[in-house]
Amino acid sequence: MEKGKAVMGSGRRWAVDFTDNSTAPSSRDITDPPGFCCASPDQDDWTSTKQKKDAEANWKAQKAWEVAQAPFKNLLMMGFMMWMAGNTVHLFSIGITFSALWQPISALRTVGNVFEPYKDSKVDLLGPKLLFIALNLGGLALGVWKLNTLGLLPTHASDWVSSLPPAQEVEYSGGGIPLH
C-alpha cells in the first residue's frame, strides 16, 4: 500500500493509513532540530501530567485571588449606595446600612467554605484569605461609620443620660416672709 492512500475495504470511506512501510529514507532519518529532546512516551506522559497539575494549581491560585478581591467591588457599590441614601434617618437609609453590616458578617462566617474549591497542596490560601477578611472588615467599618453618621450609635453623653443616677442636691434654700 502506498503512503497516504485511502484504505479500501476497511469499511470507512475516508480512512487513511499513515503507516510507513516503504524502504525509502523516511522522516525517521532526519535529525531532530536544535533544542528538541526526544523522550520516551512514559516520560512525556509524566511531564504532561506534572504540567497539567502545575497549570491547575496556578489557575486555582489565580481564582482564589479573584475571590479574595471580590469584596472590594461590593465595598465601592455599598459606599455609593450609602452616599445616595443621605444622612437622614429613614427606611431606605436604615435598610442600606443594615445590609452593609450583614453582608460582611455573613461573608466572614463562611470564609472556609468560600475558599474550599481552591484548596490544594500547591496553593497557598493564607494571602487570599487575609485579603478577603480585611476587605470584609473594611465593609463592616463602613457600615458602622454610616450608623454613626445617622446618629444611631450611642457616642454622645446625652445618649447615656437615662443610665446616670439623679444628681444630688448640693444646696437648699428657703425664704419668705416671716410670720409673727
From TrEMBL:
<keyword id="KW-0256">Endoplasmic reticulum</keyword>
<comment type="similarity">
    <text>Belongs to the EMC4 family.</text>
</comment>
<protein>
    <recommendedName>
        <fullName>ER membrane protein complex subunit 4</fullName>
    </recommendedName>
</protein>
<keyword id="KW-1133">Transmembrane helix</keyword>
<dbReference type="InterPro" id="IPR009445">
    <property type="entry name" value="TMEM85/Emc4"/>
</dbReference>
<dbReference type="GO" id="GO:0005789">
    <property type="term" value="C:endoplasmic reticulum membrane"/>
</dbReference>
<dbReference type="Pfam" id="PF06417">
    <property type="entry name" value="EMC4"/>
</dbReference>
<feature type="transmembrane region" description="Helical">
    <location>
        <begin position="125"/>
        <end position="145"/>
    </location>
</feature>
<keyword id="KW-0812">Transmembrane</keyword>
<keyword id="KW-0472">Membrane</keyword>
<feature type="transmembrane region" description="Helical">
    <location>
        <begin position="80"/>
        <end position="105"/>
    </location>
</feature>
